[in-house]
Write a structure and sequence with these properties.
Family: Belongs to the cytochrome P450 family.
Pfam families: p450
CATH architecture of one domain: Orthogonal Bundle
Structural class: alpha+beta
Number of strands: 10
GO molecular function, one term: iron ion binding
CATH superfamily of one domain: Cytochrome P450
Bound molecules: protoporphyrin IX containing FE
Strand order of the largest sheet: 1-2-3-8-5
CATH topology of one domain: Cytochrome p450
Largest sheet: 5 strands, mixed
Cofactor: heme
Shape: globular
CATH class of one domain: Mainly Alpha
Strand content: 5-15%
Helix content: 40-55%
Protein name: Cytochrome P450
């Protein structure tokens, strides 16, 4: 025993000394930049965070429900702490600041101009290679690659995202949502998350690789030559992705998560079969048309085949091999399924919580259906009807502002990089910008939540109000003033055009690495809600506490394994409605009163109980309390929240 203790103690001392030295070095580098900085013993991107992240999330679950974010000492040790923090760190340290830790330093920005700058300077701020390796279970892809490799990938992956793909998404979403609505109408209440995830997988299976899945038990049976059905393989990969990415295959196979390994292998086998079928179709000269026209896999193979045909002798290869096709199809799936499904879940909960807002969306759906029927169409079409959804997309953008499903956009500096910031208090005698230089290998995180909750960019940022997106200047629009639905800038049926200042809404990112699937996702969103709300209204299930749900969704998340995940499932139900687009839609003011009414502080015995529960980890809890914010800060928090005009929602029970 003693023989083991000595080397262990020695190792601990060496590691600790090394970390102290590294912290000192990082601090020196931070000082040189001239930016404000703070310390953290562990930062969210380092390996230790795999430990601190779940531990702190578990410890502070109930604390977070109070609505004042993470305790200061803990926040930077939590992966994607930004959602719960809602920009508080930036109020404290400034729009741009550094977090210094023994593992290096990270620059966080909630400054829209810098965020935009980072997104557009593709070569100056690159994706961190070691993190990108994590999203390559099937090899490099358009999301994970950089430089010339990215140029090679984007050339073949961008063309498939045309209108044929969006049309397919539209039609398949309507079909899948039809199944869902039937199943919802047949039951008293249903769990939202599982149904929406299944719908998302089914839509992606069709639009991603041309496989139509029905909501029948048959789809769960494994076909010959397979151990799992396609749906189960997909779900297995999604569910066990962290283990698939983190563990070597030989270990995964022998671990308690070996079903993840089987799913991974099965998914690969399915994809290789699909690729072989589609390639044979292309080679046979029967045209590039798959049975499911517009799917991304076939379109990508077709683009790749064209590249091969046009390749000049001696030139470098520009077409994909099977591994590259597989890597990208998988990535389309990952990039598209989770993001869109979570957006739909957040939107469903929002509608269930805000009846008036739901009436506005239903009103638009009714009107567009009426027009379609008058023109002889039974179903809405992508070409004719999707462009008419104005309020619907304003609603989607507002959901994405309040629940930014892609929380951070992370980059690293390959070499020293200058950043230019505008001074907070400009004066004619001072320069208009101040330049700072970030050292090489400095992490840079665009804090989307920080930007979206910054009152300089979004007045009353905590208020979820689609109307701001329909105003001529969304960044200056106060949701509690005028109803802008009928301003001349947004006549009904005109395509939705967001007019925000660039950089203030980066949920889809901007610049050369912006989302390829933006229109794909908006088409899925609109088709889903148009189908559900045509005849139904979404309600919270019986006995579900409205205040608790709102507080839960606004104050907590399940972290962001891939994208911001809702903190848990909510039971909802549907009720039929008759078409009732009143000429007099509810006013914005009424919606706000309604919102504030819903946000009364909940009673706090739940928190007392949870604090009692937490006390069983005795010493840990004491440490936590000692290091948490002092009481005075809670009062400050109330003041800040009140200043935001949001006391009812999260502030009132802090004292
Ligand atoms: C609400 C839905 C979605 C959101 C919020 C979203 C957001 C984003 C963001 C922020 C990025 C940039 C990430 C970065 O640079 O670090 C991105 C990239 C990307 N997205 Fe999306 N996305 C959504 C849906 C989709 C869908 C449906 C697909 C495909 C089916 C897709 C495919 C991609 C791809 C391929 C990239 C990589 C582009 C590149 O690096 O060149 N996304 N997305």
């Amino acid at each position: 025993m003693l023989s083991l203790t000595v080397p262990l103690v020695a190792l601990t001392i060496v590691v600790s000394l090394f970390r102290v030295y590294s912290l000192w070095e990082s601090r020196r580098a931070a000082r040189k930049t001239g930016l404000p900085y703070t310390y953290s013993p562990v930062h969210e991107l380092e390996t230790w965070a795999y430990l601190t992240n779940p531990l702190l999330r578990w410890m502070y679950q109930d604390y977070l429900m109070k609505g004042h974010g993470w305790p200061r000492w803990a926040r930077f040790m939590v992966k994607d702490w930004m959602y719960e923090d809602k920009g508080r760190a930036h109020e404290e340290f400034g729009d741009v600041f550094l977090v210094v830790s023994p593992a290096g330093m990270i620059c966080y920005t909630a400054d829209a101009q810098l965020a935009l700058d980072v997104c557009t300077r593709r070569k100056d701020f690159i994706k961190p290679r070691e993190k990108m390796k994590m999203i390559e279970p099937f090899g490099p892809n358009v999301v994970s690659s950089e430089g010339n490799l990215w140029r090679f990938h984007i050339r073949i992956t961008a063309p498939p995202f045309g209108d044929a793909a969006n049309r397919l998404v539209w039609v398949e979403t309507i079909r899948q949502t039809g199944f869902l609505v039937s199943s919802w109408s047949a039951s008293e209440s249903m769990a939202l998350k599982s149904d929406i995830y299944l719908l998302g997988v089914n839509v992606m299976a069709c639009a991603g690789f041309g496989r139509r899945i029905d909501w029948t038990d048959n789809s769960k049976a494994a076909p010959e030559g397979h151990e799992m059905s396609l749906v189960n393989a997909i779900f297995g990969v999604v569910l066990y992705l962290p283990y698939i990415l983190l563990l070597p295959q030989w270990l995964l196979k022998r671990s308690p998560w070996k079903v993840g390994y089987t799913a991974y292998k099965e998914f690969e086998q399915y994809m290789r079969e699909f690729i072989a079928v589609e390639k044979a179709r292309i080679a046979s000269g029967s045209g590039y048309e798959s049975k499911v026209k517009g799917n991304l896999l076939t379109a990508m193979l077709a683009t790749s085949a064209d590249e091969e045909k046009n390749l000049k002798q001696g030139a470098q290869r520009t077409s994909f091999n099977d591994d590259e096709v597989l890597g990208n199809v998988f990535m389309f799936f990952m990039a598209g399924y989770d993001t869109t499904a979570n957006t739909i879940i957040f939107a469903c909960v929002t509608l269930a919580l805000d009846e008036d807002l739901q009436e506005q969306v239903i009103g638009e759906v009714d009107r567009i259906f009426e027009e379609a029927v008058a023109e002889g169409r039974e179903e809405l079409s992508y070409t004719h009807d999707f462009p008419k959804f104005n309020y619907m997309l304003a609603f989607m953008y507002e959901v994405l502002r309040v629940y930014p499903v892609v929380l951070p956009i992370g980059r690293i500096t390959p070499s020293p990089q200058h950043i230019a910031l505008s001074p907070k208090s400009p004066s004619p005698t001072k320069p208009t910008t101040i330049t700072h230089i970030l050292p090489p290998s400095c992490g840079l995180i665009i804090n989307n939540t920080g930007i979206h909750y910054n009152p300089t960019y979004w007045p009353s940022p905590h208020l979820l109000s689609p109307s701001r997106w329909l105003s001529p200047n969304p960044n200056a629009h106060h949701p509690n003033t005028t109803n802008t639905l009928t301003t001349p800038q947004n006549p009904p049926n005109s395509p939705f055009t967001p007019r925000h200042t660039r950089g203030t809404f980066l949920t889809f990112s901007e610049g050369p690495r912006a989302c390829l699937g933006k229109r794909f996702a908006t088409a899925e969103f609109a088709a889903f809600f148009a189908t559900v709300l045509r005849r139904h209204r979404i309600k919270l299930g019986d006995g579900v506490e409205r205040d608790e749900v709102e507080r839960w969704y606004r104050c907590c998340s399940a972290g962001s394994p891939i994208t911001l995940a809702p903190p848990g499932d909510v039971v909802v139900s549907t009720e039929e409605h008759i078409q009732q687009w009143a000429n007099n839609p509810p006013s914005t003011k009424r919606r706000i009163e309604n919102y504030q009414h819903h946000c009364q502080p909940p009673n706090c015995h739940r928190h007392v109980a949870s604090y009692c529960f937490l006390s069983f980890i005795g010493a840990l809890t004491k440490l936590r309390e000692a290091l948490s914010q002092p009481a005075g800060d809670a009062e400050k928090n109330v003041a800040i929240i009140e200043e935001r005009g949001h006391a009812n929602a999260y502030g009132a029970n802090l004292s």
